[in-house]
Specification:
Layout lengths: L1 H11 L26 H11 L5 E4 L6 H6 L5 E5 L3 H11 L6 H11 L11 H6 L6 H16 L6 H16 L34 E4 L3 H4 L4 E7 L8 H4 L1 H8 L25 H11 L1 E10 L15 H9 L2 E9 L14 E9 L2
Parallel strand pairs: 1-2, 1-4, 2-3, 4-5
Antiparallel strand pairs: 5-7, 6-7
Helix pairs in contact: 4-8, 7-8, 12-13
């Protein structure tokens, strides 16, 4: 009983008021291929080597860290990603819509008083407890997620997105994984408290948010620069982050296999043998003056799943066919959640000025 009381008191001490509370920021998340350490380098090259600052298009936005950096320069920034979880995160951080911080602060504080031992089993804990998350934490996650859904009628779309995003960010480093949900660590999961924290929003008037197939969306857009950073290898992001996709949609599907994944959806063609053709179609259909394409040298990897579906030379060939192309490179330490050796890792940025 003493431990339970101390647990709740510890949780309640996190917040005194919203303005002075410690908030979760955009970069506080583990994500394969995260460009947090490269965003400034990428945008600086684009700014210095291109003209026009009206519209920047990020078709495979991922964490949206590059798009966020672009917002400092461009009047309009288009953010697109096929994942449901990334889309709700974009709405939470960027959608220029009023929301009641006091109301969400009170809800967050209440979540931090919940005693997991007093909660019943739920969909999330029955499936993921003592696997991807410790049992008590998993009960809290499932309970909080259902509570957010129950409150949907009293929340506007921004508030709903903020609570869901805050849940994702709160539980990210509590996961019993190496940074994604392809597998969980086969060891006893240590008990940790769930400190529910709200995110620090980054509202932007010029943002446009989409969740569409990049090749289809490309045919509808027009801008100055399109930034392209597709998933070059066979690792599907919808499968890597299936728990977050599951949480956001909350359809409670039947799960399969050791990793407890639902049936496949949102599978990217860029993770298949058709990647080269898809990239060629994409860049040819984009109505922009410049293309900026990110690429890294994991194609030299010993791991088949890490091996790139498009080779360096093929990108050069595709981009040189549509415009004048320059190549920039930067060495950096890659976020590697597996066993692949990524020594001497480099990021390449292809910058193409399209022919008139």
């Amino acid at each position: 009983m003493y431990q339970i009381e101390m647990y709740n008191k510890t949780q309640m001490m996190i917040f005194n008021d919203y303005e002075n509370s410690e908030k979760l920021e955009l970069h506080n998340r583990r994500y394969i291929g995260n460009k947090a350490k490269l965003a400034n380098w990428i945008i600086e090259i684009i700014k210095n080597k291109t003209t026009g600052n009206d519209t920047f298009i990020d078709l495979f936005a991922g964490t949206s860290i590059v798009a966020k950096e672009a917002m400092k320069t461009y009047k309009n920034v288009v953010i697109n990603d096929i994942l449901y979880s990334n889309n709700i995160i974009y709405q939470a951080f960027y959608e220029p819509k009023k929301w009641d911080c006091k109301k969400l602060f009170e809800i967050a504080n209440w979540y931090n008083t919940l005693n997991p031992e007093a909660l019943e089993e739920n969909y999330f804990s029955e499936n993921f407890g003592d696997k991807f998350y410790e049992k008590g934490i998993s009960k809290l996650i499932g309970y909080i997620r259902q509570d957010i859904e129950n409150r949907k009628n009293e929340l506007n779309s921004k508030e709903y997105a903020i609570l869901l995003t805050s849940l994702i960010y709160t539980i990210d480093k509590l996961a019993n994984t190496v940074g994604h949900f392809e597998a969980y660590i086969k060891k006893p999961v240590p008990k940790k408290p769930l400190h529910f924290r709200l995110i620090q929003t980054e509202d932007s008037e010029g943002v446009q948010i989409y969740r569409e197939d990049a090749n289809q969306l490309a045919k509808k857009l027009k801008g100055d620069v399109a930034y392209i950073d597709p998933p070059y290898n066979s690792r599907q992001y919808s499968r890597f982050y299936h728990i977050y996709e599951n949480l956001v949609q909350w359809k409670k599907p039947k799960l399969y296999g050791v990793a407890l994944k639902p049936t496949p959806e949102n599978m990217s063609v860029y993770c298949t043998s058709k990647a080269k053709e898809a990239l060629k179609d994409l860049v040819e259909n984009l109505d922009v003056r410049y293309l900026a394409v990110s690429y890294n040298n994991t194609y030299q990897s010993k791991s088949k799943s890490s091996a790139n579906k498009i080779r360096f030379e093929e990108i050069v060939e595709i981009l040189s066919g549509i415009g004048e192309t320059k190549i920039f490179e930067q060495s950096y330490r890659y976020f590697n959640a597996g066993k692949t050796d990524f020594s001497d890792h480099k990021e390449f940025l292809f910058l193409t000025k399209k022919y008139a």
